[in-house]
Amino acid sequence: MPATTSQAGGLRDHVVLITGGRRVGGDLAIRLAQRGATVAMTYFTSRAAIEQTIATVEAQGVPGLAVAADLTRSEQAQDAVRQVIDRFGRLDALVNMASLYRRTPLATLSARDFEEMIAANLAAPYHAAVAAARWMLEQPGRDGIKGRIVNLGDWASERPYKDYLPYLIAKGGLTTMTLALARELAPHILVAMIQPAMIDPPAGLTPDELETVLAQTPLRRIGSPGDVNRLILYLLEGTNFVTGACFRVDGGRFLGEAP
Ligand SMILES: NC(=O)c1ccc[n+]([C@@H]2O[C@H](COP(=O)([O-])OP(=O)(O)OC[C@H]3O[C@@H](n4cnc5c(N)ncnc54)[C@H](OP(=O)(O)O)[C@@H]3O)[C@@H](O)[C@H]2O)c1
After folding, report:
1. So where are the chain's domains?
2. Which atom of ligand 1 is least distant from the CA of 171?
3. pLDDT in tens, 170-199
4. Whose CA is nearest to atom 47 of ligand 1?
5. Ligand 1 test: best mutation among 31, 44, 253, most atoms within 8 Å of CB?
6. Is this prediction's pTM over 0.70?
7. For residue 3, pLDDT beyond 90
């Protein structure tokens, strides 16, 4: 179900930073605005798309901010977080969406492929999380919680398929980062991870490839941004007792093919 209906909500005066997201992140921004949250989003190359999303956020009557950042660069990640603090005075939650996904078969894999995948899928969320956590720790808490971090991983990092070696290694590192940060930042900051399977078919997916994915998914469908984002909303406003947890949102794909 897409994010369409307006609901005033429990995140009023909460400031949430989403890193990127032409697809899942854009839907999350609207849902957060409908819950009353102030929403900041970073963009790397998709300036127009993110500015459009922020305009939609502001049309809900809440403040928004679009920030340019190459999050693989630590100083740009720090600067993006600082811009949010300068504008809104605090940061309640960081949602690490930014990622890079492409096929990298072993036969043609280059060292550069590895470096780019680790940079976008592991270093970028790391830089954003460290920068955000340092600010969060300095701010007054709400019900004892100073901040929340949600990382977007991938179900396949724990049941790898072929031809995506550096991407899957980076997402696996993100799982360890989630656990280590949860330990490091407790009891002040809650850290969790969501591991989706296919959410909306990516551009270029053939009908045969889609059929194969469906056959490998016990629930016999692919996910929607709402399947992921309803869980993110729960982690941001529905609990103060979840940290270091990783949630697969995969239609059961991790379990393997259904009979
Ligand atoms: N969609 C799925 O089927 C699926 C499946 C499994 C896991 N996931 C995970 O769920 C999350 C959201 O997925 P999605 O499909 O919504 O992602 P997406 O639309 O591909 O968005 C990824 C974002 O990452 C940003 N990005 C890439 N490199 C960056 C950099 N160096 N600095 C800053 N930002 C950078 C891009 O920004 P610009 O566009 O501005 O360049 C883009 O908006 C991702 O972490 C993904 O790995 C998604």
Report:
1. 15-249
2. 47
3. 999 999 999 999 999 999 999 999 999 999
4. 99
5. 44
6. yes
7. no
